């Protein structure tokens, strides 16, 4: 049974997510360590989702090593995993995420950095909450999890404060005409959210959380 909701057709009342994952293995000052291992963890966290209606768009940012890792681990055996290579551009540039947006076929684009991961129920809980609310907004934001001396803790997102919102906190429809700046800074994710806000589109906060931030430069790297 299919349900028509605000312009989208959701199969069995489920949302399809396009998970966009840029990948660059070169060295830079704030890079996480052991990224070759962490990208495997990140991809596996998507494969382990209890929600099955997704596609994973891995964008190799001019990086052959990223392609080699994905191929060597047979991740493309799952037809939902898709791998693309683009020309390398400036650090913090938006081209990899823009490439993912342009190729997305889901109801919502959602992001995952190669040094982070999802909890296994994350996409399922997001889908159920969005469908339960009944009206699909143009974009949503959510809280995430960070590591503290006492273990992992929920971090409340603040879309009006730099450092308190980013790619771990946002999901949006792919056809809004909103793209990441071609050239950016470390605050590129905060700036992108500001662009979303400035469009005046309908948005809201979801109660669901499940993105685990495993690397904050200058703070921790797990």
Which spans have pLDDT < 50 for at least 5 consecutive residues? 1-10
Annotation field: number of helices: 5
Name the overall outline. Answer: globular
H/E element sequence: EEEHEHEHEEHEEEEHEEEE
Give the structure's gist in a few sentences.
It contains 5 helices and 15 strands. A hairpin with a 2-residue loop joins strand 9 (144-148) and strand 10 (151-155). With 222 residues, it is an alpha/beta fold.
Explain this structure to me?
The protein has 222 residues and is of the alpha/beta class. Helices cover 24% and strands 27% of the residues. The protein is built from 5 helices and 15 strands. It has helices spanning 35-47, 64-72, 95-103, 122-133, 188-198; strands at 2-5, 8-11, 17-23, 54-61, 81-86, 108-111, 117-118, 139-141, 144-148, 151-155, 170-172, 203-205, 211-212, 215-216, 220-221. The strands form 5 sheets. Strands 5-4-3-6-11-8-12 form a 7-stranded mixed sheet, sandwiched between helices. Strands 1-2 form a two-stranded antiparallel ribbon. β4 (54-61), α2 (64-72) and β5 form a beta-alpha-beta unit. The radius of gyration is 16 Å and the shape is globular. The termini are far apart. Residues 1-10 have low confidence and may be disordered.
How is the secondary structure organized here?
Blueprint lengths: L1 E4 L2 E4 L5 E7 L11 H13 L6 E8 L2 H9 L8 E6 L8 H9 L4 E4 L5 E2 L3 H12 L5 E3 L2 E5 L2 E5 L14 E3 L15 H11 L4 E3 L5 E2 L2 E2 L3 E2 L1
Parallel strand pairs: 3-4, 3-6, 4-5, 8-12
Antiparallel strand pairs: 1-2, 6-11, 7-13, 8-11, 9-10, 14-15
Name the descriptors:
222 residues; 7-stranded mixed sheet; two-stranded antiparallel ribbon; disordered N terminus
